[in-house]
Amino acid sequence: MSEQQKETTIFQLADKFIALANELSTEEQDIAKVGTALRFAAARFNAFEAALKSADLKAEKANALEWFTKEYKDMLNDNLDDHIDNPPTAQQEPTKDEAVQVFNG
């Protein structure tokens, strides 16, 4: 499988998660709640992934945190740049939610 095919598969999988998040956002009428749940799910699944891949997770925990954090930061940076260049068409007011600190710039 070529690198491009792997990337396409990753993006196709991500699109499925995004579609579910969009569906849940519509049902819940709370994008912040869904975003928090999605981040929690990603953290939980990534911890599971690290545990499966590690011979000694306790010893490798700091490296895992550094690696996953860098990966997330790079992905978030790319997607923030994409939204700067291509803003969403429907501007929504930030939702007030005590469980989530809303970024206000």
What's the main sheet like? none
Estimate the mean pLDDT confidence. 89
Report the principal-axis shape: globular
Query: How far apart are the termini?
Result: 42 Å
**Gyration radius from CA atoms, angstroms:** 16 Å
* Percent of residues in β-strands: under 5%
SSE ordering: HHH
Structural class: mainly alpha
Tally the helices: what do you get? 3
Poorly predicted spans: none
How do the strands and helices of this protein lay out in sequence?
Layout: H1 3-28, H2 31-53, H3 57-85
Salient structural properties:
mainly alpha; 105 residues
Description:
There is one protein chain. The protein is mostly helical. It has a domain at 10-80. Helices cover 74% and strands 0% of the residues. It has helices at 3-28, 31-53, 57-85. The radius of gyration is 16 Å and the shape is globular. The chain starts with a helix and ends in a 20-residue tail after the last helix. This is DUF3144 domain-containing protein. Residues 79-105 are annotated as: Disordered. Pfam families: DUF3144. InterPro entries: DUF3144 (IPR021490).
How would you briefly describe this protein structure?
With about 100 residues, the chain is mostly helical.
